[in-house]
Amino acid sequence: MGDLVNDLQRAGTKVTKATIRNTLRQQGLKSCSARRVPLLKPVHVRARLKFAREHLDDPEEDWENVIRHFLVTSQLLCRRPRYRVWRPQPGNITLRLSLMENTCRNVNHCWNGISERARAHLMDKSYAFPQLCPVEVQLGDNLLAFTDPMLEQYGINLVNVSKEEFDSCFTEQKQHLFAGYINGSLQVASKWLSPGVHYFAGTHEGSRHLCQLGLRFSVLVKEQLCQNSPRRHLCSGKGVCRAQTGQFAYGCQCLKPYSEPYCDAVDMCSGGPCQNGANCLSSHAAHPSQASYQCLCPSVFTGVNCSEILGQNNCIRRCRNGICLQVSPNSFHCECFDGFTGKSSISFSMPEPLTLQEIQCQNSTHVAGSKWHWYVPRCLRVRASTSSKVRNHHEVGGDWSWRNLRLSRDGERKRSSGEQLA
């Protein structure tokens, strides 16, 4: 929670932890802190290390049984923010190496919080478990590794491994990160933290059994792709440079009407001006006053935004609970009756719900077109009642709506359900 507040403040947004907590609660989410109770007690860790030390030379089949016995039954759900904002200055990221906590055993636990698309991509690949929660840093961050007292006393080092070695826990031990066993906090050299995914495993005297117990982790190093020149502001000052969990690089989230990748061009299509399923073509420009767009309308629509219908017959077929108004010699616009909304006047809305209230329709209003005539009922709301006339109307979820009103050429009002208007 504190990291999220700091990231937002660096981006120019001032919030408090209480604000974020209340927002999450309103959205049905929970703000969770890190696990305070270790998954394993120190006595259990000591027992595991003692067993490992005594059985280093056992056959592979015996160790497979040991691994199954030692797997933590109550695994950790790795928690992380969904987005991270790029920090102007590098930070210090600490990684605690332990068999007592931070251990996950499947994709859902290890990559909790990432998008469904990214998770599906991870599901398609083979990943080894158990492992420590994956680490994500931005390019230039300092990664500091330290061990819990039990592992420090046991003596471990870290080895840079390939993806295949990470999965199998088999390595030739040629790329140790440190000169000796980890004692205290040690910084991982920058040569191991280039952009991309890197894999590391814990080892003790060349043994891979710590790796099989879950002492292995991946680090995703993200670069930022938010400026086309080092002298330019991130996202041209018209957006936020951020990355999703599992995303390989930071990118711009632009304010409308500016467009990616650097928010330095105006995209008039970003606001969705084209209607009725039309395609939008934008002429990108540096300033909104210089930008323009064009809507490619489907066959029966026309107009600048494809909001007009070609031909009176097409309009009548599509315009329900409304009337067709002539805009040009060949185009018409569907004008909804009072209380109806939507592209074809299908949705019904009222300023407040009517619950078992009598609706009285009187003094029908005559609306005349060039060739067509309609009689539109003017409905008034009166006192609450349980009259049978009210029950004859169609009620949906406590609100009231008329059934589809069909308007005929001779002005007769009909209902598709056969009911009579009051």
How would you sum up this structure in a few lines?
InterPro entries: EGF, EGF-like_Ca-bd_dom, Notch_Cell-Fate_Det, RNaseH_sf, Transposase_Tc1-like. The chain has 11 helices and 28 strands.
Overall description:
- The protein is an alpha+beta fold and 422 residues long.
- Among the domains are: 34-224, Sandwich (Immunoglobulin-like), CATH 2.60.40; 341-415, no CATH class.
- 19% of the residues lie in helices and 31% in strands.
- The chain has helices at residues 2-10, 17-26, 42-54, 60-70, 107-110, 116-123, 149-154, 163-168, 209-212, 312-318, 388-391, and strands at 83-85, 92-97, 103-104, 131-132, 135-138, 142-147, 157-161, 186-187, 196-203, 216-224, 239-244, 249-254, 258-259, 265-266, 279-283, 292-296, 301-302, 308-310, 322-326, 331-336, 340-341, 347-348, 357-368, 373-384, 394-396, 399-401, 405-407, 413-415.
- It is elongated and about 95 Å long.
- Residues 69-74 and 345-422 have low confidence and may be disordered.
